[in-house]
Design goal:
This protein is of the alpha+beta class. It contains 26 helices and 20 strands. A five-stranded mixed β-barrel has the order 3-4-5-7-6. A hairpin with a 7-residue loop joins β15 (692-695) and β16 (703-706). It starts with a helix and ends in a 9-residue tail after the last helix.
Length: 783
Amino acid sequence: MWRAYNQLKSADRALPICSEPVGEGAIRVTTGLSAEDGSDIGVPLGGVGRPGDEAPRPGWARGLSTRLGRLPSRSEVWRGLKAEAAAQLDRAALWTPVAFGLGAAIYFGLKTEPPLWPLAALAAIGVLFAVAIQRFGRLRAATTLAVLIAVVACGAFAGKLRTDLAARPVTPAGLGVVTVDGWVMDVANPSASGERLVIAPVRIAGLSPDQLPYRVRVVVPVGSVLGPGAAIRVSTLLDPPPGPAAPGAFDFARDAWFEGMGGVGLAMKPPTMITLAEPPWRLRLAMAINGLRWSLAERLAGDIARVMGAQDDGASGLAVTVATSHEDWLPDASRDDLRASGLAHMLAIAGLHMAAVCGFAFFAIRLGVAAWPWLALRVSGKKVAAVGGLIVVALYLTLSGAHPPARRAAITASVAFLAILFDRRAISLHSLSIAALLILVMQPEAVIQPGFEMSFCATAALVALAEVWPMPARAAGLPWPLAFLQRARDWTIAAIMVSFVAGTATGPFAIQHFNRLANYGVPANLSADLVASVVLMPALALGVAAEALGLGHAFTDPPLFVAGWGAKAIVGLAHLFAHAPHSGLTWSSAPFPALAISYLGIVFACLWRGKLRVIGIPLAAAVALWPRPPAPVAWIASDGNDAAIVSQHVEVALKPNVRTYATELWAQRRGLSLPADAAKAQAALFDCDRNHCLPKPGASPALSAWWTRRQPKPDQLSALCNGAQIVVLRASLPTPLSCPNALILGPDDFAKGGSAEVYAAPKGWRLEWSQPIRGVRPWTVNP
């Protein structure tokens, strides 16, 4: 072996391969030492010569060496970094939505509301500085950097401008039960408490006309829903939009601010019809469109349930949801299965639905043009189909209710069709960046919303994958069975990679915002998205068109039957993957810096050109890898009317089966388990009635609570203090309560701080309130 090694090492010269024509291949090609010899293939002259030769000879092979390659020097590293940075200048436009979103995120992350004029001045100065650098500067990199900085300033200014333009009156806190007269604007998706109506108020008892909210949302008893366009009177407990259920959790009040939702209520009894003056034309138009959506949803639900019969199993509810965004016919069990299996995106009309419907329309129109030779010779079938796609985008956006996810998907699809009309690539990072910038200009708040974060990152990851995906040349003349197998293999691999990449890009946001990662997300999305794209959405589009045209059952039933079975298949897949063993992992939310790092890591990996893009991969995993701080030991609601403690990593709610959304949200954010029987777990640690809760031995922390606003009697106060470590009071006392060695929280504390988490500290307890995290912003201040 050693002799063979020495012989191999000494063989530092090799003859050129095929220097003479040999065999049948010489008929087609000859090789030689250089192209000047008449050869078709020239051997490069870059070989290494023998020791002692002044110049390397052509065709000589490099000597075999066992030495390791040396590490690059500092200058080489610097040159490589400069080369990669210079390569990004051609992709600077891709970073404009990132810079704009960064500016908007900085604005929304402020703890106090800034005036408009400083942000406007910064944006103007940034733009003027960028123009000056572009005109008088000589460095392209400096111009690019100046433009991106100006875009950041413009993003912050746009966020402030959007906040001011969205300002509407908000229901005063403590208003109580009032009578609301108004128009039913829309039927919102139902909650655990009942069905919900969006009302445009005309009169609210106790409020002057200039104090009327723009819209209010009221939960009404089951079966008492009145469709859009109805004039109603309802007696309701009306409150301002609630803040986060726990510190750092989802802030509904912020979203309500930008949607014009100035109050939420719980109806005391079913609404009644009344007569009101004619509303403004814009309200009439909105109610007319929503009325058509609601009536179509009712017809769709009835027709699909009729054609499916006993085999419905939630199929009609899902079909109506993806067509009109109304979830009123979707069973709660099916909704829970879709969320647990990683298919929650089916419930919100967004990119998947828009792409399936508009893509079907595009290819159908293009096929129709191609099938008509006279027309195909005179017009561009692709551009005609693009115009048709734009029309379908507008129609589907209207039918869906134009909610924020649908608006974002419509903008993205419209940019793609416009790119076709202007002879540009429809699917590229450039078209995606234009769509993202348009979305952020119109809705700067989208940058902090999970829907935009997940859809933008998933789409960017898929387009970046398409850029680097190898496109091997296909062998010509293959028999059709082999060609079919080859294409089936390629499409299967591509579909698996698409599902995997999209799931990986959205994983950090699923962990941070929803605290769950579906273990079978890749096969679930791969199968369900295929059924939705190929079966459900095309058939549903044909069925809805037939319904809208008023055609008979002979035309509507066949496509609705196919759509019903497609929806049933998706519901079945959701149930299968949701209830499979080890179907999901529960993750507690990471600190905010981890989400920001993951966000930027995904964007960097998608947009950067060069080897350094791999840096974004470990950064994207920051949410999953970031160390979690110790979990809190207790939680208290923002009004002091509910609380929970942690016992052996299990949440124990003091009011089981009441306000379950808030308690479950807090448990999943902190990675806590829920007891199998909430009432039994509460009874083991607390003695509770409708007025108060007292801790039993073993409860830690020993938390007592007074639930009513009526002042407790002296003996009740004594019982609350006895053995308690934390005392929660909703009632205002004439004199401050004094309990030895107990932390006392009263109404003033909750009015100032909101919801609270309690942490164990070396000397007592440490509180973290939600209001300081939110800051003093327009949506955080109750009038």
